[in-house]
Each structure stands twice: as C-alpha cells, then as structure tokens.
Amino acid sequence: MREKYDVIILGSGIAGLTAAIYLKEAGFNILVVTKEEEIAETNTNYAQGGIIARGKDDSSNKLYDDILKAGCGYNNLKAVKLMTEQGPGLVFDFFIDKLGIEFSKTSEGDLDYTEEAAHSHRRVLHYNDQTGEKIESRLIGYCRELGMNILSSHTAIDLITNNHHSDNIQEYYQPREVMGVYVLNNNSGVVNTLFSHNVILATGGLGELYQHTTNPPAATGDGMSMAYRAGADIINAEFIQFHPTSFYHRDIKRFLISESLRGEGGRLFNPQGERFMERYEPKKMELAPRDVVARAIFEEMGRTGSEYMLLDIASFYHGKIPLDVRFPKIYETCLQGSIDITKEPIPIVPAAHYFCGGVRVDTAGRSSIKNLYAIGEVSCTGVHGANRLASSSLLEGLLWAKLSAEDIIDNFAEIDRKRFDFVPDWKQPPIEDFDPLLIIQDLKAIQMTMWNYAGIMRTEKGLVRAKADMNYYYHRIMKFYQKARMNRAILELRNAAINGFIIVKAASRNQNSIGCHHIRM
Fold it and tell me: Rounded to an integer, what distance in angstroms lies between the CA atom of residue 415 and that of residue 314?
C-alpha cells in the first residue's frame, strides 16, 4: 500500500492526539498510527497524579523557579519560560472549555488542586488518581467525533528520508528531509509505504529498557530510535527519571503509586519502622525532588538488605476526601494485592518512569531534520533539564502538540509529489524463522544491564561494562534483525538495543552527577 497524507502522527497519547485535533480542525489530511490494538494503550493513559495548571496565589514566575530547581538548572530557559507562560492557561482553554473534561472538585465545588514533590504551590489538577485515563478517553472520543483517521496495530519501521531511501541519485546531494514512514501491519506482516509532507513523532518513552518500570510494555523508545537512525540530534539521554514509588508485588507489575500520596501526607519507612528520609534529605523529606527520593529509597534498600520500602498514607493522610475515594485506582489495585491502603503501609520500589532526554526540538517542536517534528516524551525541549518536575509532562505534551500543529499550519509546504515516485517499497530481507524465546531473552538481558549499570546509581566501571554489553547486543541484534521475519517484537528489540546504547554513551560522557544522572567515580 502506497498512500499520501499531509501529516502522519506516530503515537496516540496526549501529544499525538492533541496535535491531530488541531491539524484536523484546520483541514489537513491526517493519519495517526499506533502499534497497539487499543488506541488508549499509552503512557498518558497510566498517568495518575495530574497536570499542572494555575493554582491560587500562583504565578508563572513561581512555576518557572520550581521547574528550574527540579531540573537542577540544566533546563532550556526559553522553553521553560514558554511553558510557564502559555501552558497552565491551555489546560483551561483546551481541556476544560473545549473538550469539557471535568477534573476533581472540592466539597465546595471548586477545582481540587493537589500538591506534589518539589512544587511550592498546590497547582496540580487531577481526576482522582486516574487523570491520564480521563484525558486519554476524552481525546479519543473527540477524535472520533471529528472522524479522525487512526491506524491501530501498525508498527513504524523507519522514517523515509530523501537521501537514504530515494533511488534518485540527485537526492543524495540535498539536505536531509523526512518524506514519510514505512509501517508494518502487525497482523498481516505487510509493510506499507506511507508518504507525508510532515511527520510528527509522539511515540512516548522507553521505560521498557529497565527491569523495573511504571511504563507499559510498548514503551521501547521506537520514535527516538527511528530519529537517531535518520540522523536527528538526540540530547540529554543520560537523564532517566526513576519514580520513587511503584507497587512492589509478586503478581502486580508496573503499577505506579502516585506522588500525590506523599503530597497528601504519605511518609516513607523502612521495614524496621524507621522514617529514613531524614537521613538523606532532612529539609524536604518525602517531598524532595524525585531523583533525591528515588536514590534515598535505593540506598536504604541496600543499607537494610531489603527488596522494598514502605509508604504509609493510612496514618498520615490529611485530605478532606476519604482516602479510598481520593485514590480509587490505587486503593482497588493494592486491595487486589491484599494491601488495604486505608489501614496499612504500601510496599514500594523505585522504577524507571520518564525519559527527560530525547529528540532535540525547538519551541515549535521542530527537530534537526526538515519535516520531522517530535512532541511529548520522545522529544527533548529542554523544559525538564536534568530531572522532571512532577505533573509537568502532560502539560509539556499538550503545549508542544499545539505549538507544532500551529507551526505546520502556518508554514505548510508540500513536497513535490514526483519525488515520492523515486522511493521504493520496503524490501524484505532473506527470511529466516526464529525462536520467539530469543527475543524475550535478549530483551531481559538488556533490561538487566540497564538496571544494574545505567540505572538509579551509576559508576564509571559499571558504565564501561554496560557500554561493552550494549555494543554486543546492538551488533548481534541488528544482524539478527536483518535476516528474521519482520514483526513488532523484533522491531521493539532493535529499538531497545539502539536506545540502550545511546543512553549508556551519554551517561559515560557526562562525568558530573546532576539530577537523574548520579554517577560515583
């Protein structure tokens, strides 16, 4: 299948669908592609805490300062200024006024702002502890009302670029530009050639590279891997944010225990009953930035020899709404694991949560390659710096979706359609059958390497080991990929290997401990 669109958007989370809405309403021919069968299966859908808006007695300057403090001053000041001035109001304009999303309210009927770590004000809007699910559901509903063209169960293979894929020799001498995407039909195995005048990467994060993560299994960093292979600039790849509190349970994996619990009074204890945060951060305690709390938990686990720590909200909750009503998803999920959060502490462990680096983009979401945009977690605007402020990611995805869409609308230029004719369809390599267990085994090996040597705590020797291991996996997996029958699992493994190598190289280059990147020499 060879088809042409104005814009192809890869990803169906908050960033991808928001951009699609702006472009569709402006009259553009849009295609949204997701590798999942269910459109809602995104990182956005699992976001619990909330989204930054404008709280009482708050200001853009105060939010600006909080973002810089959390990001250790490593932030792109221009991008932070843009988000603090335009972002909070957009939550009201787009989500509340346009889409009609109803966030949680107090008993008096006012919007219920919650507090999270490293915030100086209560400025986070939420829908109980299911904010992402609420936003994702409404975005999908609105897209359906618009008749949005959404292609599910299709995995992007490669970005089509002029001087790599075209058979026209003259394209070799031109600046690189993106012309579309090769996309695999997960069910039939057929590879489609999809052309477009612009491509927006909104493919989310890469938590699946780590042994413990709050991300869904699809988070293999596909967009960054494709952009890297196409020649786009990647920055800040050493900054992997580990959420301090994911549910530690034998049968329930990947479940986030929202930072809002600590914002509402929750305290951390070791299994011996000691409130240990005063040993590591006596001033901010549980409300210190995420990297500080995650490292404290990790170190306390090592000091005590325990596989988990405990978060006690039952004894210290100071909210007005009953605990099981304020956090229904967390209450119900923990109850399935025989933990009643209204009566007992929650076993928790840190987990890979958010990627602060990614495809380098400007304040319009433009990458270093013509016609290629990146928004949301796959991108690096520089807003987060070395460590993301809680509940800022949804806001960044929302704002840069709008900014990128507006930039395309204002500057849209069609590629000469004759140039598409020189791009051949995907060439299938000599096909070999393979044992699916090999993919599982290789992915687990990557996850263990990344967790042990490029995780919460890093050492120079560990990164040398990780670099050697990831170099080995990268070359072996790429060789395997070139011969094996194409499917989603192989593509994800390839992307994981490439992204792991990128992260380890970046971590090895940065000899300074800052934010999410903590290295012991």
Answer: 59
Show which of 301, 326, 349 is a domain's final residue.
Answer: 349
Look at strands 51-52 and 191-201 and give their pairing: unpaired
Of 349, 376, 402, which residue is a domain's last?
Answer: 349
- For residue 277, give both structure tokens: 């945060």
Dist CA 51 CA 124 (whole Å): 5
> Which residues, in sequence order, are bridge partners of residue 354?
241
Q: Is residue 132 in some structural domain?
A: no
- Which residues have CB under 8 Å from 282's CB, separation 6+? none
Per the structure, the complete domain to which residue 467 belongs is given by 436-520
Helices (H), 365-487: 393-411, 417-420, 436-453, 460-481
**Cα separations in angstroms, 173 against 161, 170, 220, 236, 397:** 13, 6, 33, 30, 35
- Strand, coil or helix: what is 459? strand
- Cα–Cα distances (Å) from 85 to 62, 95, 311, 353, in that order, read 11, 17, 35, 26
What's the number of domains the chain is made of? 2
CB 481 within 8 A of CB 490: yes
Judge whether 17 lies within some domain.
Answer: no
The sheet carrying 358-360 orders its strands as 234-235, 358-360, 379-380
Among 440, 448, 443, which Cα is nearest to 495's? 443
Q: Is residue 8 part of a domain?
A: no
- Give dist(CA 127, CA 105) in Å, integer: 9
Residues 166, 6, 140, 234, CA torsion sign: positive
Among residues 314, 319, 316, which one has the least CA distance to residue 335?
314
CATH code, domain carrying 290: 3.90.700.10
- CATH number of domain containing 445: 1.20.58.100
pLDDT in tens, 141-170: 999 999 999 999 999 999 999 999 999 999
Lowest mean pLDDT, pick from 83-87, 393-397, 437-441: 437-441
Q: Running DSSP on this structure, what letter comes out for residue 415?
A: P
Q: Does residue 343 belong to any structural domain of this protein?
A: yes
> 164: which 2 tokens?
């790599």
pLDDT digits (tens, 9 = 90+) for 82-113: 999 999 999 999 999 999 999 999 989 999 99
- For 156, residues 6+ apart whose C-beta sits below 8 A from its C-beta are 10, 33, 35, 181, 182, 183, 184, 203, 222, 223, 226
Which positions are annotated as active-site residues? 290
DSSP codes joined into one string, 208-244:
GGSSSBSS-TT-S-HHHHHHHHHT--EE-TT-EEEEE
Contact between 481 and 439 (Cβ < 8 Å): no
